[in-house]
Amino acid sequence: MSLGFRDVACVRGGRLLFSHVSFDLAAGDAAIVTGPNGVGKSSLIRIAAGLLAPFEGRVACDGDKALLTEAAALDAERPLVAALRFWASLDRAPDPDARVARAVRALDLDALADIPIRLLSTGQRRRASIARVAASEAPVWLLDEPANGLDSVSVARLEAVIARHRAGGGIALVATHLPLGLPGAQEIAL
Ligand SMILES: Nc1ncnc2c1ncn2[C@@H]1O[C@H](COP(=O)(O)OP(=O)(O)OP(=O)(O)O)[C@@H](O)[C@H]1O
């Protein structure tokens, strides 16, 4: 699996946000996208996800992708585990229930399993969204500000989940303005 940007430029609303962004990520690699508000970090993640076309350059991705953005992308009315199972059952990987169970444990969400998404706190909902990505077991994770709203214990859990993903050969591309421990990650400073 791999994810590569070659001389990628991004234009939004007629304005050039960045250009000549190149990087290559292979199995086990991570990159952190940094820069001030409005520089284009979320836009870069959306380009990697295939939701936004690059203005110039090329993006190559070999492997299924899982995307985390500001929106939880979980059914607000469903209980947490049911909402996660909905997505997990659509993934290519086998055994959705086991994948959800592993992700729920990793994000310490067991006690909230039956609570509807709409009743979760900001940080709990963010942990649920991270669990959605983790449960997908997709090889390429695209995470936009995953640490937003998390307390320090949850940030440590997020770091551990990403580390395990990489140890299993996964790739993580992470936009963040908060410090995040991703050992050996490349920095893409916009
Ligand atoms: N759909 C759009 N149409 C026009 N301009 C847009 C659109 N979406 C985003 N922009 C602009 O693109 C610029 C970059 O936005 P983006 O969300 O990628 O930045 P960011 O680096 O992630 O910012 P932040 O740190 O505040 O999250 C901003 O000036 C924003 O207003």
UniProtKB/TrEMBL annotation:
Keywords per UniProt: ATP-binding, Cytochrome c-type biogenesis, Membrane, Nucleotide-binding, Translocase, Transport
One of the record's GO molecular function terms: ATP binding
Entry keyword annotation includes Translocase: yes
Membrane-crossing residue ranges in chain numbering: none
Pfam family, one: ABC_tran
Keyword ATP-binding: yes
PROSITE patterns per UniProt: ABC_TRANSPORTER_2 (PS50893)
Residue stretches making up the ABC transporter domain: 3-188
A single GO BP: cytochrome complex assembly
NCBIfam families: ccmA (TIGR01189)
Name the UniProt record assigns to this protein: Heme exporter protein A
Naturally occurring in which organism (per UniProt): Sphingomonas aurantiaca
